[in-house]
């Protein structure tokens, strides 16, 4: 356990601490979905650090302390988290989520996020989406769904998000405080893309509902949108 708090790793420090053998979060017993999610959420960003400290109304302090002292702080301090620490968290999630397979089976990252953010910590949903003018829906992350497109061989995240929103007729109701995006995945047998290039910045201008945008013809504020 590392009870002292450490800031997220940035730039040269991130490369120095996280690169090399025995770095990252150690996998064990189908933990890859959780390892990758935790690494993405906490290693190099503080956007969700409220999960580690804030006394939410429904917050389980034991789970919060395991997440902070056994996983996030060691990751930021030494660049490595042992499988035992993640298993400790999985055991607590099994108790709280009434699902015995959290300690041995592979889960969808969205299932893990919903359990820990909603049921255990009591965090408000991070995203508000609307599909085709229907009722708004709240969620904690967005999973990219799309059909195979031949012109996309090695896409970047910006392209995938835009095309996924377009194909599902989705809009963001408001600018999210945190935009967690799950890449397309199709199990062990088939991968839609062999590689995806991370977009270091994400332009969500065209994804926002009723957002004022420039007309591509005259340059004034647009009044119509063509998909």
UniProtKB/TrEMBL annotation:
Alphabetically, the GO molecular function entries are: cysteine-type deubiquitinase activity
Does the entry feature the keyword tRNA processing, yes or no?
A: no
Q: Where in the cell is it found?
A: Cytoplasm, Cytoskeleton, Spindle
Query: Domain Peptidase C19 ubiquitin carboxyl-terminal hydrolase spans what residues?
Result: 24-204
Name of this chain's protein:
CYLD hydrolase
One biological process GO term for this chain?
Answer: protein deubiquitination
Task: Tell me which Pfam families the record gives.
Answer: UCH
Q: Which UniProt keywords apply?
A: Cytoplasm, Hydrolase, Microtubule
Span-the-membrane segments of this chain are: none
Please name the Gene3D superfamilies in this protein's record: Cysteine proteinases
| An example Gene Ontology CC term for this record | spindle
**SUPFAM superfamilies documented for this protein:** Cysteine proteinases
Q: Which InterPro entries match?
A: Papain-like_cys_pep_sf, Peptidase_C19_UCH, USP_CS
Q: Does the keyword Cytoplasm apply?
A: yes
């Amino acid at each position: 356990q590392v009870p002292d708090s450490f800031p997220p790793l940035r730039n040269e420090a991130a490369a120095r601490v996280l690169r090399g053998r025995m770095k990252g979060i150690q996998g064990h017993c189908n933990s890859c979905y959780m390892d990758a999610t935790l690494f993405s959420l906490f290693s190099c960003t503080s956007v969700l650090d409220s999960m580690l400290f804030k006394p939410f109304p429904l917050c389980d302090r034991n789970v919060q302390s395991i997440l902070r002292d056994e996983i996030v702080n060691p990751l930021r301090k030494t660049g490595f988290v042992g499988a035992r620490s993640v298993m400790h968290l999985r055991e607590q999630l099994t108790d709280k989520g009434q699902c015995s397979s959290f300690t041995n089976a592979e889960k969808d990252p969205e299932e893990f996020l919903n359990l820990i953010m909603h049921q255990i910590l009591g965090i408000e949903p991070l995203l508000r989406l609307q599909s085709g003018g229907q009722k708004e829906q709240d969620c904690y992350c967005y999973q990219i769904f799309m059909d195979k497109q031949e012109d996309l061989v090695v896409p970047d995240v910006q392209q995938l998000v835009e095309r996924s929103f377009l194909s599902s007729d989705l809009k963001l109701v408001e600018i999210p405080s945190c935009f967690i995006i799950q890449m397309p995945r199709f199990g062990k047998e088939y991968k839609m893309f062999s590689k995806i290039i991370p977009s270091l910045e994400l332009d969500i201008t065209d994804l926002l509902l009723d957002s004022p945008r420039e007309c591509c013809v005259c340059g004034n504020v647009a009044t119509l949108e063509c998909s």
